[in-house]
Amino acid sequence: xxxxxxxxxxxxxxxxxxxxxxxxxxxxxxxxxxxxxxxxxxxxxxxxxxxxxxxxxxxxxxxxxxxxxxxxxxxxxxxxxxxxxxxxxxxxxxxxxxxxxxxxxxxxxxxxxxxxxxxxxxxxxxxxxxxxxxxxxxxxxxxxxxxxxxxxxxxxxxxxxxxxxxxxxxxxxxxxxxxxxxxxxxxxxxxxxxxxxxxxxxxxxxxxxxxxxxxxxxxxxxxxxxxxxxxxxxxxxxxxxxxxxxxxxxxxxxxxxxxxxxxxxxxxxxxxxxxxxxxxxxxxxxxxxxxxxxxxxxxxxxxxxxxxxxxxxxxxxxxxxxxxx
Length: 325
Ligand code: NAP
What we know:
Layout: E1 5-8, H1 14-23, E2 25-28, H2 37-43, E3 49-52, H3 60-66, E4 72-75, H4 85-90, E5 94-96, H5 103-118, H6 121-129, E6 150-154, H7 158-166, E7 173-177, H8 183-189, E8 191-193, H9 196-202, E9 205-208, H10 222-227, E10 233-236, H11 245-253, E11 259-262, E12 282-284, H12 293-311
Parallel strand pairs: 1-2, 1-3, 3-4, 4-5, 6-7, 6-9, 7-8, 9-10, 10-11, 11-12
Helix pairs in contact: 1-12, 2-3, 5-7
The chain binds NADP nicotinamide-adenine-dinucleotide phosphate.
């Protein structure tokens, strides 16, 4: 019997690649950089499965190019806003992702970014290297305390609740918002449900953990930043599309909020001359939320499991919501 044909769109961790290679005719983009769109569209023709990253937009054009042989799209990410899930399911294509394995790692990065932004670590490191550390000065590089602060969590899902667990040692007051109260998750964490507006008004730190959907696109606009405290720090480790970056820039410049820490931006990568990068109170990371060796390897393997199940015509072990056929 013919082996299934698959496309792998990037150089992925070897254990995952070996798993796929052992069972499938594999065409892979052996690079750290994304596959060019025109090559991707050519390579997907007639394949049974696509193993992609969040850099590949999976839309009707890709599905048309792949044709009726396509059975599965497996992304090496938990977020799947780059995939038109409805269009896949309409064509009988299953969609898989990697929930759970990156939860704690991403929550840790959110906490690291929050503390780095609040305590102005990048500015302090730069000052030392630039020879600006002349003596101990009472109010030099003073930031904001996390202990005792009110932290607002937008999206108390897997990562949002893991982040809340990490905050248990900081004696914070925790607020959360989302489509509905989640007392079974929130009560053990001591988190209180609030409307989006109330959360913005009361929080010293606002941390975003919701998916990018039509409802959350540009959720953080000028009006949202106006509602926040002048001393508030905004942290986004979810998706850049949740934020209007022009509005964020204005809010930071006008002192409507005190600072921002972003692991995700729109666009990605953020151009090196982007105005946000010129602001001392904005800390930007290159989307490294899940970037530990162990977690990225687990994600790659999980995506491989989805791919192999899909090309074999089996239900995926980790389907996205609504991504089953
Ligand atoms: P999850 O378990 O599905 O959690 C998402 C939460 O957001 C859910 O509790 C959901 O509520 C809530 N939500 C949905 N719409 C909302 C809205 N309009 N306002 C507020 N909350 C809303 O997903 P997860 O595994 O925690 O991942 C969350 C997101 O993090 C992913 O979608 C991905 O984009 C991002 N992420 C980023 C990185 C990184 O490297 N920086 C790494 C991993 C993930 P319901 O359950 O009630 O629907």
